Amino acid sequence: MAYSMFPFLGPTLGPICGNFLVANAGRRWVDTLCTLYFAPMFILGVFILPETYAPYILRRRTARLSAETGNVIISKLDMGVPRKTLASTLTTEIVRPMLMSVLEPISTVMAIYAAIIYRILYLISAAFPIIFIDDRGWSQGLSGLAYVGIMIGQIIAVPVYVVLEMKYRKKIATVASTPEMRLEPAMYGAVMIPVSLFWFAWTSYTSIPWIVGLIGTIFFGLGNVLVFIALMNYLIDTYSLYAATASACNAIFRALFGCAFPLFTTYMYQNLGAQWASSIPAFLSLVFVPQPFVFLKIGPGLRARSKFANEAKALLAKMQEAREKVEEKTKDGKLTKLGPEVLTTCRNSDNSES
Length: 354
Fold this sequence. Notes:
This protein is mainly α. About 80% of the residues lie in helices and about 0% in strands. It has a two-stranded antiparallel sheet with strand order 1-2. Helix 8 runs antiparallel to helix 9 (about 210-240) and helix 8 (about 185-200) crosses helix 10 (about 245-285). The radius of gyration is 25 Å and the shape is globular. It is found in: Cell membrane. It comes from Penicillium malachiteum. GO terms for molecular function: transmembrane transporter activity. Pfam families: MFS_1.
């Protein structure tokens, strides 16, 4: 939950702090502050964060046990699998996300929707100075406080999502879980986003108190987080072992939309005015309102025809089957040193040499 919320808090908390910093210390101090923060975070991430990818952990453990015992120990996942090369690694890390973004309707539609709602945040970042500095005459530092409404909505999303998650867990305790069950938060958020954007757009007249428009942005922040987390959970449950690839596909679209949106925002507001320019992202998000409701119906059929989802499901079943076999051997007093992971082939290296 926190992992998904903080990428949204960045574009809102950043201008609140950054605008006051620029107004009082200059633009260079923004870059300096970012460097002072990111440098230690990078170092901590490299040396402290553990590896979490199960196949890699298993492969590393079998290599260590092979060195300790003198036996060649191979995991079932690696049996019959060619050794990894640079070409195969590039295929997995770069080509597969691109293929998924083109060939997988689930991944493509979810990625486009997530990219649009996420990048509307950056469109607003370019729009707020026009609305609050140029039109309303706020100072640069004070204009950063216009993001407080969105930030409040994002913070409210945490307890709201916790309640919805508890409801989901109670439901799967009695019925079989499906990825489509993850879409309920997106249904609420999908409706909130266009409503809040239209609210903000048509209350941005200088004759209307500024607080009215900012109240509307609270629902935008809330809906944004609910939709994004729900879509990511849906992708993870759908593609399981290929979830990282689906996330990479999602990131590709977010990056592309992120590059494009700020390029035309200023011209759009200059030519259309604050009201109609702010309505464009509202209309754009309105197109995607039916998306979670539609996927609730057609999602199972799309998953059944998905090459990547079926491959991941089969591989996961294979891992589970092998895990159960090892657990049975462990109960019999065998392989106790190896733990619950999958270790299936042990061949004495001395015998093989002879």
